[in-house]
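> forwarded from #structure-qc
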């Protein structure tokens, strides 16, 4: 997936030294949001199988990502994380995966131009199968069943059989992640990511009269590419790009089974993805998730909602990044547009004063969820953008670096979030709402956000 630009990577396998027993301490700690399948023979068999399967990512790739994120934490790169709220097995198709990768690459090109910096591309992809829920159950027309917790746990279909927690799904999730990752690696290394094609796709977007406002930025990028070409830039070098995988590390038995010793360093890496994050619902300091992720070498993210205190943030740093290593820890704030200007400054100020160098990323989705008049979970594009603007304002005022964007998005033509320049309306939901969990920006809304954030980054750099 990532182009291996540094020394060849030693594989992570089962043959290395025994794993640190500390990796199982989480089993003794309070744990939230887990399925009810533990102790069953089917669960034991699935875990046994997973622990023998090859790693999905390599430790050397994970180390490269940590270096890239360290640059972002120091204000020298920008992180773009995007993908479904909940990937599904059925939608792990070539068309849908390519549309999502394509959209992330399109956003990344305009962000790279705006920031005049490398953009680290990362999918909520190839493993984003487990969902924390507000309620354990869902009731429809008087029938109550277990809530859908992601395809790795149960099915979305509202029947007793489908909603049963089925441990065989753990192995299916691994296999689906493997085939998704395989396709992403092929796309991003095999010529699909060619800078000139990605730019041409963006020109297609700005040709829509609704997006005329972005034409001048696309034209500037066009001139920059022609200038590079005239200077003899090697476009063959720009046919490939690094692309990293990420998901919420929610099911710890799955994550533990895919944790392996790196034969180079003897250290444990969670090989289910390059980057793992801890959700807002599972970031308890003395809980299982924080403990487990404190013990693996991957770069780690933590979501911070509006109730997070500076004390929480500092304690998370002590536990997850005791060596204050840039690139190790990313805080993904998801405050809501109404809260961000009030709540984020205190966190950023206290964390900065502590000397820790975390990467600050905004997730402008999860604090802005509302219910539409016709009963769908949705988000207004304007609220989402307002949170992004607030994120930039807070960091500008404090002299800190707004280092990335984390969005729920798809490459498809869905109707799940309202508004945008080519606006989505509630009446379209009945036909075009596909998400099985939270509403995603569609292809056009994602690109619009890319252009808007690119403008904000250019302004920060004094170029617009
Ligand atoms: O993706 C995030 C959570 O799983 C989701 O926001 C929870 O939503 P719920 O309130 O519908 O359970
Ligand atoms: C569950 C999610 O977010 P949060 O933990 O921030 O609510 C998510 O990213 O889908
Ligand atoms: Mn979500």
């Amino acid at each position: 997936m990532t182009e291996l630009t540094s020394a060849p990577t030693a594989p992570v396998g089962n043959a290395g030294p025994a794993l640190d027993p500390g990796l199982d301490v989480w089993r003794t700690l309070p744990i939230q949001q887990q399925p009810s399948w533990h102790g069953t023979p089917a669960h034991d068999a699935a875990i046994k199988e997973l622990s023998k399967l090859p790693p999905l990512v390599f430790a050397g790739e994970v180390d490269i990502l940590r270096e890239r994120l360290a640059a972002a934490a120091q204000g020298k790169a920008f992180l773009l994380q995007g993908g479904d709220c909940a990937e599904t097995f059925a939608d792990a198709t070539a068309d849908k995966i390519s549309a999502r990768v394509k959209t992330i690459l399109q956003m990344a090109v305009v962000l790279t131009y705006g920031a005049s910096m490398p953009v680290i591309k990362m999918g909520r992809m190839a493993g984003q199968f487990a969902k924390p829920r507000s309620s354990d159950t869902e009731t429809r027309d008087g029938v109550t069943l277990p809530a859908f917790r992601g395809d790795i746990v149960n099915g979305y279909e509202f029947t007793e059989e489908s909603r049963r927690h089925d441990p065989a799904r753990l192995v299916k999730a691994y296999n689906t992640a493997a085939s998704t990752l395989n396709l992403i690696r092929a796309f991003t290394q095999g010529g699909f990511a060619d800078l000139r094609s990605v730019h041409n796709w963006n020109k297609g977007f700005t040709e829509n009269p609704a997006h005329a406002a972005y034409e001048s930025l696309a034209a500037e990028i066009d001139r920059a590419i022609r200038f590079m070409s005239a200077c003899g830039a090697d476009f063959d070098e720009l046919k490939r790009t690094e692309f990293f995988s990420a998901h919420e590390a929610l099911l710890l038995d799955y994550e533990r089974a895919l944790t392996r010793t790196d034969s180079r360093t003897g250290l444990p890496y969670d090989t289910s993805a390059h980057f793992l994050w801890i959700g807002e619902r599972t970031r308890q300091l003395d809980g299982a998730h924080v403990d487990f992720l404190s013990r693996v070498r991957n770069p780690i993210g933590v979501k911070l909602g509006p109730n997070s205190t500076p004390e929480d943030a500092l304690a998370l740093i002590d536990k997850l990044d005791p060596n204050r290593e840039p690139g190790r820890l990313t805080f993904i704030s998801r405050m809501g547009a109404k809260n961000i200007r009030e709540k984020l400054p205190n966190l950023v100020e206290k964390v900065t004063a502590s000397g820790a160098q975390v990467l600050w990323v905004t997730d402008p989705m999860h604090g802005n969820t509302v219910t539409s008049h016709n009963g769908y979970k949705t988000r207004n594009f304007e609220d989402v953008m307002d949170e992004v603007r607030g994120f930039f304002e807070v960091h500008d005022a404090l002299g800190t670096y707004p280092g990335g964007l984390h969005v729920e998005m798809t490459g498809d033509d869905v109707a799940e979030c309202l508004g945008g320049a080519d606006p989505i309306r509630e009446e379209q939901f009945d036909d075009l709402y596909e998400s099985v969990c939270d509403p995603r920006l569609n292809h056009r809304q994602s690109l619009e956000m890319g252009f808007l954030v690119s403008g904000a980054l250019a302004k920060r750099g004094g170029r617009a």
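QC bot note: The chain has one domain: 16-193+240-460. The CA atoms of residues 126 and 175 lie 9 Å apart.
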